[in-house]
Amino acid sequence: MARPSLATGPNQPQARLRRDFGFKEARAYIAPVSEYPTLYEWAGGRDAFDRMINAFYDRVEQDDLLSPFFPGGVHEEHRRNVATWWSEVFGGPAAYTEQLGGYERMLNKHRQLGITDEQRFRFASLMSLAADDAGMPNDPEFRSALVAYLEWGTRLALGNSQADAEVAAHAPVPRWGWGEAPPYRP
Known about the structure:
This protein is mostly helical. The protein has helices spanning 14-21, 23-29, 39-43, 46-61, 76-89, 95-100, 102-110, 117-133, 140-160. Helix 1 packs across helix 2, helix 4 (46-61) packs across helix 5 (76-89) and helix 8 (117-133) packs antiparallel against helix 9. The longest helix is centred in the C-terminal third of the chain and has 21 residues, at 140-160. It starts with 13 loop residues before the first helix and ends in a 26-residue tail after the last helix.
């Protein structure tokens, strides 16, 4: 069976898959969300996120644009806490919420930093490279979800870091999913 198009939207609803590939084949591809592993599981669990965050901060410490946020380097506790955040966001244990203060703590870590557009873009770019360094899954579906979160999260951090920012003071830690492109299973 040919791989169905992942394009969906108002002009290409899931019914197109049923029409073009038959109900049984479409059903096998469009499984209920609960049948998919979380992004956390797909990536390899906590070890994978520890590798990615460590690779990222190794790059940040050498970066002229981002290293000033971390005078003296990025400490182990910070790396561990950020890996805990990313693990929770991508479907792992809710440890950041339960043990570290949740969204409110992450928000407060970014308040008044005055992040620039260039710094936001560099953060997203270095994290994408760190995902490569760490051997994170490189399938298009996982990387689409990763980059979507990077874009969404860094744009929120940019806005929340400004001196005049009106922020959402309380919110849950986001739980990121597969979005429009669940993992392909032939």
